[in-house]
Specification:
This protein has about 850 residues and is of the alpha/beta class. It has 6 domains: about 90 residues, BRCT domain (Rossmann fold, 3-Layer(aba) Sandwich); about 90 residues, 3-Layer(aba) Sandwich (Rossmann fold), CATH 3.40.50; about 110 residues, BRCT domain (Rossmann fold), CATH 3.40.50.10190; about 220 residues, BRCT domain (Rossmann fold, 3-Layer(aba) Sandwich); about 100 residues, Rossmann fold, CATH 3.40.50.10190; about 100 residues, BRCT domain (Rossmann fold, 3-Layer(aba) Sandwich), CATH 3.40.50.10190. The chain has 25 helices and 26 strands. It has a 4-stranded parallel beta sheet. The protein has a 4-stranded parallel beta sheet with strand order 6-5-7-8, with helices on both faces. The protein is globular. It starts with 12 loop residues before the first strand and ends in a 14-residue tail after the last helix. About 20% of the residues have low confidence.
Length: about 850
């Protein structure tokens, strides 16, 4: 450690953000340490603004303070107090990234060291940790927080035990699950020497955890004001703030008087003009006052947020917690027909999810019924989860509804993050960590500047788009004056589309726990009525048209100016050139970001922290997403596999492990009926021979893809298809070949039901396991205007499977459907041909 007075912090100017985790007493101690080592500290009174033009570092334990985004935009380092200690230990300024309070970097303040991990898996784990804010040490030191190991036999593990180091020895599966979820879960079930994920069963008792993230934010309209009465205190969170309370809160005069007295007593003031307000409190996202306040960048929250400020006497952003922000009057599009129940959540987390479900416009049911469309569960265990599998009901974790609400658009349940349930973990421990996507909120609810009122014609300052969760959307382009780019005004009438950036998944290995299977909502008319997306109402359609028309009028002056500038001689800015420059800037920013990701979650770093002397030039953009099947060269040769994948990535080729990650190309030695081949075929990819991989690796540049096109006349004759025609049909099908075809399988079907489930899902359908219990509703043939339709059961010929056949036939006939008990070859042939085909030879004998 540095000696007293060493100028470690010379030329550094610090400012502190006081909070519950960083009280004034602790700040005073750290300030003295900084000043003893040549640093300068600008102490501020609570509530005052940090002088961003004077400081170089801001010490804060959280990113939830008003000037965080402005500090980031100004390239000011925001670090935790641990950065000071780390710098003193190293006797020089430590890297700031591992000490950032940014909640998106889930491994910040984490230093990992690896023990007996295979080299390929080690690179994957370390890469994920580095990309998500952590750091790595090749040797075991006192600064290491986690030791990644498979057993306790390694000398590093024994050293931790002998020296009693404060270092947790965890299985690599912990990193897998954290990266898959994009959230940091507890290490307890993964700790060696006796990890619960190995010793305990999936259905063993697991305590329901509590979460601080939803404390005081479980309801948008609290029943009472939670004022602390243990000791009198003065509120200063409202100091020099003007607060406006909207009439849509519908609170009584007595409660309103209490709230006003608290605000005024704390140095704040009340106002009835939104233009003079600093905080606007309302219940719904609507009305001119809401739009004016939001567009001007004022703090806009609901009654729950106001109560939270009063209770904790500490500012927090209303965008941080979903139920602290005003509710959408018409809910979220697509949720109105859903009936959703909860499982494995308790206490305040359950109340929070109940209110969130109702805020989306869906119906919450306490008990499980066949009419339910979704089960939101914290773990894949329990009666409701079993019933969901039997009744073909979608089962997801809470991240699905949180991110749907935050992005104002229903997220696809095919994202594996929403169907992943780590063993021995109740996901209630990471509930409430999803913030709003401010860009999408603006695009939907206040895309244009509201017309100023005659009494206050001053123009409103356009808000700066804050940095957001990288899992939610791309970073915002910010102009030099702090105003948002004009790009955010385009296409405001369209439904917002936010790409869900998936966390990088660590390479699978022996004994790893696979993610839960993903299924697509069934659209069958008898089985899951109401799962189709509802047609937007005429009201919402008119609203969208009005917004688009208003936006067009607002752009009229700019369009006229642009046309005038085009005619002027010597004009060098505008049009395509401007667009190209913005595109280049955006690409450069994304490729140079320390934690930049591609759309499927590949982690890209601009520097290798393990070899800091080597400057990394960056990887080219991904042009080909390649799925590989039946490639023998990499079998039992992980070293060559890792080396070849790196070389391919340097050519712009990303090898994806799953067709669901959007493959553009498929490599196979011939036409094969593997799960990967059939799932990818539904996309209609470019299919090449596997020697395309060898050519890329050997030549070091991308060869002509067409010269490696797969041609297999023998297989085409065997399967009675033409590969070119299959690709054309697949593109025309658009993943919906089996969308309306009800398909079931027995539990013991050859090759396993999970294999066929993925193939059916890739083609837009849903496969459920049939256990003898009727799941098709009875239909009167006279009332069935569509007539009988076929329903399929994939089965083998084991005795236990044959016992189910009569029950399946009876169920199908009760539903006025045609029962077809078939071999799995029917599904494989349909998938290979990319068209519905039927022959009697598919039927099993004796049904």
């Amino acid at each position: 450690m540095a000696g007293h007075g060493a100028p470690i912090f010379e030329h550094c100017v610090f400012s502190f953000v006081e909070s519950r985790d960083n009280p004034a007493e602790q700040i005073s101690e750290v300030q003295k340490t900084i000043e003893d080592h040549a640093g300068i500290v600008l102490r501020l009174k609570r509530g005052n603004q940090i002088k961003l033009d004077e400081v170089t570092h801001i010490i804060a334990t959280t990113s939830d303070f008003p000037q965080y985004s402005d500090a980031r935009n100004a390239m000011i380092n925001v670090v935790k107090p641990t950065w000071i200690l780390d710098s003193l230990y190293k006797n020089k300024a430590a890297p700031t990234r591992p000490h950032t309070p940014d909640p998106n970097l889930i491994f910040s303040s984490t230093t990992i060291c690896c023990a007996d991990i295979p080299s390929g898996d080690k690179d994957a784990v370390v890469g994920g940790v580095l990309a998500m804010g952590g750091s790595e040490s090749s040797t075991l030191t006192k600064l290491c927080t986690h030791l990644c190991a498979l057993t306790m036999d390694h000398p590093k593990c024994q050293l931790v035990k002998e020296k009693n180091l404060k270092c947790k020895i965890v299985l690599p599966h912990w990193f897998d699950d954290c990266l898959r979820l994009g959230k940091r879960i507890s290490e307890e079930p993964y700790l060696l020497p006796n990890p619960e994920i190995v010793s305990a069963g999936p259905d063993d008792f697991l305590k329901i955890p509590s979460s601080d993230h939803i404390h005081g934010a479980s309801s948008p309209r609290p029943e009472s004001l939670p004022i602390l009465t243990d000791s009198p205190r003065r509120l200063d969170v409202f100091k020099k703030k003007a607060v406006m309370i909207s009439q849509d809160l519908a609170i009584g005069s007595r409660l309103r008087k209490v709230i006003e007295d608290l605000i005024i007593g704390g140095g704040g003031s009340m106002t009835s003009s939104v233009h003079s307000a600093d905080m606007y409190i309302c219940h719904w996202r609507g009305g001119r006052d809401y739009q004016v306040a939001s567009y001007a960048g004022k703090d806009v929250g609901n009654l729950s947020w106001l109560y939270h400020l009063i209770t904790h006497n500490e500012w927090t952003s209303p965008m941080k917690r979903l139920l602290h922000y005003p509710l959408p009057e018409s809910g979220i599009e697509g949720f109105s027909g859903f009936q959703i129940t909860l499982s494995n959540y308790g206490g305040e987390a359950r109340t929070y999810l109940e209110n969130l479900i109702m805020a989306t416009g869906a119906t919450f049911t306490k008990s499980m019924k066949e009419t339910n469309t979704h089960v939101i569960t914290a773990r894949n265990s329990g009666e409701k989860c079993s019933a969901a599998s039997e009744w073909d009901i979608e089962m997801v974790n809470h991240l699905w509804i949180e991110e749907s609400y935050a992005r104002c658009h229903m997220q696809r349940m095919t994202d594996p993050r929403y169907t992943h349930f780590p063993p021995r973990t109740n996901l209630g421990e990471v509930i409430g960590q999803t913030p709003f996507d401010m860009e999408l909120i603006q695009g939907l609810y206040f895309p244009n500047e509201p017309t100023p009122s005659p009494s206050n014609p001053r123009s409103l300052k356009r808000p700066v788009m804050h940095d957001k969760d990288p899992n939610l959307s791309h970073p915002k382009i910010v102009e030099e004056d702090g105003s948002a780019s004009e790009q955010e005004d385009q296409n405001v009438s369209q439904k917002p589309v936010a790409k869900s950036k998936k966390p990088a998944a660590v390479k699978s290995r022996t004994n790893s726990f696979p993610a839960a299977n993903v299924s697509t909502p069934s659209a069958n008319r008898r089985i899951s009525a109401g799962k189709e997306n509802n047609t937007p109402s005429s009201t919402s359609s008119r609203s969208a048209k009005d917004r688009a028309l208003s936006n067009l009028h607002g752009l009229a002056p700019d369009i006229a100016l642009y046309e005038k500038e085009k005619k002027r001689k010597g004009a060098v800015w505008g049009g395509e050139r401007a667009l190209n420059k913005i595109d280049k800037q955006g690409t450069a920013e994304r490729s140079s970001s320390p934690a930049a990701k591609d759309d499927e979650g590949e982690l890209l770093g601009d520097e290798d922290t393990r070899t800091p002397k080597r400057q990394r030039t960056g990887l080219p953009p991904i042009g080909i997403r390649l799925l590989i099947t039946s490639y023998d060269t990499w079998v039992d040769n992980p070293t060559k596999e890792d080396s070849d994948k790196k070389k391919l990535r340097e050519l712009g080729i990303l090898v994806v492990p799953d067709a669901r990650q959007g493959c553009t190309h498929l490599a196979a030695p011939k036409m094969v009926r593997t799960k990967k081949f059939l799932c990818a075929l539904a996309i209609g990819p470019t299919i090449v021979r596997t020697d395309f991989i060898e050519a890329c690796v050997k030549k070091g540049h991308l060869p002509n893809v067409e010269s490696f096109a797969l041609k297999d006349a023998d297989a085409e004759k065997k399967f009675n298809v033409k590969l070119k025609e299959v690709i054309v049909r697949a593109k025309a099908n658009k993943h919906s070949l089996l969308r309306r075809i009800p398909i079931y399988s027995t539990k013991d079907v050859p090759s396993g039901s999970e294999t066929y489930r993925d193939i059916v899902s890739a083609n837009g359908g849903t496969l459920s396991v049939f256990n003898g219990r009727p799941v098709i509703k009875k239909v009167n043939p006279e009332e069935d205007v569509t007539g009988p339709e076929p329903v399929y059961l994939l089965s083998g010929e084991k005795p236990e499977e044959r016992k189910l056949w009569p029950k399946f036939v009876a169920m199908a006939k009760d539903g006025n459907m045609i029962p077809r008990i078939v071999t799995p070859n029917w599904l494989l042939d349909v998938s290979m041909a990319q068209q519905l085909i039927w022959k009697e030879l598919y039927l099993l004998e004796g049904q």
